[in-house]
Amino acid sequence: MQRERVSAAVLFVEPGLASTARFARDGAATDVVVAQFRAELGQVDVPAGVAPLMARVQVELAGLAALREQVTSAPGAVLSVVAFSYRAVIADLVAYRQGLGQVGVSASTANGLRAAAALSQAIESLGQVQVAAVRSVEAGRVTPAGQQEIVAASTGLSEALQTFSGLGLPRWVGLVNGRLSAGAEVLRSERLLGLVTRAQPGQRPSLGASAGGFVAAMQVRVDAMHTAEAEIDRELLAVVGAERDAQRRTVVATLAVVAGLLLVVVVAGWWVAASLAGSLRRLQGGARLVAEQRLPQMLGRVSADSDEAAVAVLVAEAAAPIPVDGSDEVGQVAAAFNAVTVSAVRLAAEQARLRAVIGAMFLSLSRRLQKRSDRMMASLDGLERGEEDPGRLEKLFELDHTATLIKRLIANLQVLAGGQAGRPREALIGLPEVLQAAGQGIDAYRQVHQIGVDDTVHIRGHVVEDLIHLLTELIDNAAQASPPDSAVLVEARRVGDLLHIQVQDDGVGMTAEALEAFRERLAQPRVLDLQATQRMGLPVVGTIAARLGIQVEVRSVVRQGTRIDLTVPAQLFEHRPVIAEIALPPSAAPSAAAGPPASRPALPPAAAPAPLPDGPWAGAGATWTTPAVPPWIYHEMTGSAASDPAVSWFESRSDGGGPAAAGRGERVGVAAAASEAVWNTPTRPVAAVTRTASGLPVRRPGALAYAPLPPQQPASETSPRDADLVRARMAAMRGGLLRAGRTHHLMRSNER
Questions:
Q1: Which of 28, 510, 528, 665 could form an S-S bond across to 514 if both were Cys, CB 3.0 to 4.6 Å?
Q2: 438 — phi, psi (to 5°)?
């Protein structure tokens, strides 16, 4: 670049083919070096501190073609402008070399780089002296500005060489001095340099024969300095490469050490994590064992009869410490958890024992209240049996119903305390009677109506009281949630081997939140807490349903009512169809060999009244009549007479049928009478109703409209009356009134 600049200056002073060829040759050499520079620049990462400077250099190198065009072709080109353009590019390149001394090297290497940059600056100052001298030749004399430029360049040359001597190695200084003092041409260039620097303004510069000769003589000195610069650069490159390799080795070693440390840390962390994970797993397993097995088992074994010693043993078994080795944080947490477990299990055991004691107290108290209520109902029954005044009898009925409701509350307490509602029975009870008893156990019993009840289903005796109690609570809830003038419908049908019971009302219904809470209370009934005592119905229903295995499903829509579906399993009921059998005496049975009777026989006399089978429905004057009538309709249609056209039931004859037809008419009369007897025969026992002297009907407690299967033995006259039996009889009486379409007692009707 410096040679190209001097050739351009000579071309301005001595234009011609030789000068033009020299300028072109120096420009081509510059292009070769620029291409190499760009190729190597693409393979390195320019430090951030000199990146802006390198970007400016690339822009200036790209403008060389335009600058050369200006030198060779522009008629108005000025040497000073051209020289300044070249000087700017060379100045940026020298500044780039100076900036490399501050990037990522040691202090000694940085000093060497700055010394090499100072040598480059000295060469540039010598080139500026050449250009300033040639410009003086162009002007014909040394101008004051030209003298200042020459002096400044000479001063810069001296300062740069002094900086090089101060920063560079002694052998580098000796190398440069040796190059600048060897040879006649170098000495001649030094003499011409002295003449130029001492020229005064207004004098013609002493450059020898011509400007081209001066430039050639000075170029010998410039080339000597470039040779020394190249040797120094090669040495610096070796030093920088060695430092680079050392840094790479250091980085690799550091990475290896860091990787080793990371591996050690990872292995140690894995070991610690595995140890912690094992301890935490044991701690978690122990916590689950306590929460899911030990504590529930301990709570199940604690009862009201457990003393302090037994509770202490159960607590020690349930709160056995979790074995966790070590005294680290996990071990400390395990020790704290063991302490918490001991306290929690002890408190849970105390609470369980307290609940068991409270439950036993409630159960004992409810049983005592049940005995008192049974005695009260027995006394009311005695008063009702002998009372003939309708007003007082109605009051007694109200007291009887109130006592029944009180007994229901007592049964609620028994269920919530873990007992059973009422006393278990041994006989089967018909499903209609069970539903009727459930409906009559509430205040608004007049709202309850049965529809579609399967009367062939009989509930087993040991679950009758529980099922009645469950249905009573559901029906009472439905009646309270519906208007007083609406009906609560109870439907029960056998579906396959299951019994489906539905209680439906047209009341206010429930929202989605209330329905969810309703189902939750059914699924998880609380025992003897404040909510259970305030709302006994749902906890009682949930407890009984869970004990009997009955599924309860609830559906409700706001302002459209509620539907509660019960699914009763097969082991809780039996299917027994009721069939009325009419006895046929042997003497009245038709003979296959005998012909039709000649005349219409008289109806056989009815059998003598037989007493009712033993059971709670037996009462004074109650009888069970079984007429002995021959089922001649069946024999007339299926016997041998049916095949005779003369006596056929379905043959129409114009001649009247003869004697056979007359006999058929008599047999038809007999069959019709027998059919009427069958129709009028009661298929269930009905208690006879007697009246007092004033005409009032006497209430017969226990005169149920249903018969348990199999019947039980009646109680003796001297034994105390069964309160459950009394309630069942009253329920049967009210059921009979409802079935007859009445809403008041017969006595009230007679009184009117």
A1: 510
A2: -65, -40
- The distance of Cα 52 from the centroid of its chain, to the nearest Å, equals 58
Q: Give the H/E segment covering residue 573.
A: strand 573-575
* CA 15 vs CA 9, 12, 22, 75, 208: distances in Å: 10, 6, 11, 12, 18
Q: Strand 488-495 relative to strand 561-568: parallel, antiparallel, unpaired?
A: unpaired
Phi, psi values for residue 742, rounded to 5°: -115, 150
pLDDT digits (tens, 9 = 90+) for 583-629: 344 444 444 444 444 443 443 443 333 343 443 333 333 333 334 44
- SS3 letters for 378-395? HHHHHHHHHCCCHHHHHH
What span, in angstroms and rounded, lies between the C-alpha atoms of 487 and 433?
Answer: 19
Q: Can you give the C-alpha Rg of the chain in angstroms?
A: 64
Res. 260 pLDDT band, cuts 50 70 90: very high
Q: What is the pLDDT of residues 80-101, one digit of tens each?
A: 888 888 888 888 888 888 887 7
Residue where the block lists tokens 């056995």: 320
Q: How far apart are CA 572 and CA 428, in angstroms?
A: 10
Mean pLDDT of the 421-437 span? 83
Which is nearest to 231 in space by CA: 116, 99, 127? 116
The tokens for 295 are 């504590």
Distance CA(505)–CA(700), nearest Å, equals 33
SS3 assignment, position 501: strand
Task: Taking the CA atoms of 277, 278, 280 and 281 in sequence, report the sign of the dihedral they define.
Answer: positive
**DSSP H or E run through 357:** helix 329-386
pTM for the full predicted model: 0.41
pLDDT at position 573? 92
Beta pairing class for 498-505 and 457-459: unpaired
Residue 528 pLDDT level (bands cut at 50, 70, 90): low
Helix (H) and strand (E) counts for the chain? 23, 10
Q: Coil, strand or helix: which one is 450?
A: strand
Separation between Cα atoms, residue 8 and residue 131, nearest integer Å: 9
